[in-house]
Amino acid sequence: MNVPGRLGAVMYVVASVLAIALLTALFHDAIEHQRNPNESPQSVATDDGRVSIVLERNRSGHYVFDGFVNGAPVEFLLDTGATDVSVPEAVANRLRLPRGARLRAVTANGITTAFATTIDSLAVGALEETNIRASIVPNLPGEQILLGMSFLKRLDFSQRGDTLILSQRRPR
């Protein structure tokens, strides 16, 4: 039995596994930043005192960003095609959002059942709105909340290149 040869093979396998683990750890943050480049959206105060948030588009062309619902951390995906803020059922359960009336929701994947709810507070950086109409969607996969027009209609927003600016409306 060739003990030095076998020991060398084991050491090679161990070194390879450690190298892969190290590379995975090193590149995880870079890959996560490509998926969600807005983990800590920065708030900017405009000259007229409004709060604005500047978001960067991700590699897939979407605006993904972190924020808070009723004080709990969540991840949003901006969806101007969604009438309401749409919350996956698992996220709604974690946030303890109450289920209201049963609704019929028309989605990109067809017609589904949803439940009306209200979000007391939705915040992205220093930009916060209260009493937001939302829907709990049982078959919405994943952990991202679709940030629809029931929130976005309260803001001014503009897109230039790969940047989206969400701003509070001027008081009337």
Structural features, described:
The strands form two sheets. Strands 3, 4, 5, 6, 7, 8 and 9 form a seven-stranded mixed beta sheet that branches. Strands 1-2-11-10 form a four-stranded antiparallel beta sheet, with no helix packed on it. The chain has helices at residues 3-35, 89-95, 149-152, and strands at residues 43-45, 51-56, 64-69, 72-78, 85-88, 102-107, 110-124, 127-137, 144-147, 155-160, 163-168. The protein has 172 residues and is of the alpha+beta class. The N and C termini lie far apart (87 Å).
Protein traits:
single chain; 172 residues; 3 helices; 26% helix; alpha+beta; four-stranded antiparallel sheet
List unreliable stretches of 5+ residues. Answer: none
Distance between the termini: 87 Å
Mean pLDDT: 87
Total E-strand runs: 11
Major sheet summary line: 7 strands, mixed
Give the helices and strands as they follow along the chain.
Answer: HEEEEEHEEEEHEE
**Structural class determined from secondary elements:** alpha+beta
Name the beta content range: 35-45%
Cα radius of gyration in angstroms: 22 Å
With helices defined by DSSP (H or I, 4 residues minimum), what is the helix count? 3
User: What overall form do the CA principal axes indicate?
Assistant: extended
Proportion of residues in helical segments: 25-40%
Give the structure's gist in a few sentences.
The chain has 172 residues and is an alpha+beta fold. It contains three helices and eleven strands. Strands 3, 4, 5, 6, 7, 8 and 9 form a seven-stranded mixed sheet that branches.
